[in-house]
Amino acid sequence: MPIVTVQQGPRDIELKRDLVKRVTDAFVDAYRIPAETVQVWIHEVPADSWGAAGKLTADK
């Protein structure tokens, strides 16, 4: 059973629904497995708890 973890900043629920469907479909196509066996975990990190290039994303 594949488990996919996505780490990202907060997103709209509709975008997350679309992402989960697309990721699931990719595994179904690539591995020829039932969609029910694919799990997608979305870990959302607030902009003040995430940094890139030496700066918090909240400061960009």
Describe the structure.
With 60 residues, this protein is α+β, with helices and mostly antiparallel strands. Helices cover 32% and strands 27% of the residues. It is built from one helix and four strands; from the N terminus they run E-H-E-E-E. The chain has one helix at residues 13-31; strands at residues 3-8, 39-44, 51-52, 55-56. It has a two-stranded parallel sheet. A two-stranded antiparallel ribbon has the order 3-4. The chain is elongated, with a radius of gyration of 14 Å.
Can you lay out the helices and strands and say which pair or pack?
Blueprint: E1 3-8, H1 13-31, E2 39-44, E3 51-52, E4 55-56
Q: What Rg, in angstroms, do the CA atoms define? A: 14 Å
Q: Which structural class matches the secondary elements?
A: alpha+beta
Shape verdict: elongated
Beta-strand share of residues: 25-35%
Helix-residue proportion: 25-40%
Query: Which regions have little confidence, pLDDT < 50, spanning 5+ residues?
Result: none
Tally of strands: 4
Spatially, the strands of the biggest sheet line up as 1-2
Largest sheet: 2 strands, parallel
Give me the strand/helix succession: EHEEE
Alpha-carbon distance between the termini? 38 Å
| Average pLDDT | 96
Number of helices: 1
List keywords for this structure.
60 residues, alpha+beta, two-stranded parallel ribbon, two-stranded antiparallel ribbon, 32% helix, 27% strand, elongated
Short description:
By secondary structure, this protein is α+β, with helices and mostly antiparallel strands. It has one helix and four strands; from the N terminus they run βαβββ. The longest helix is centred in the middle third of the chain and has 19 residues, at 13-31.
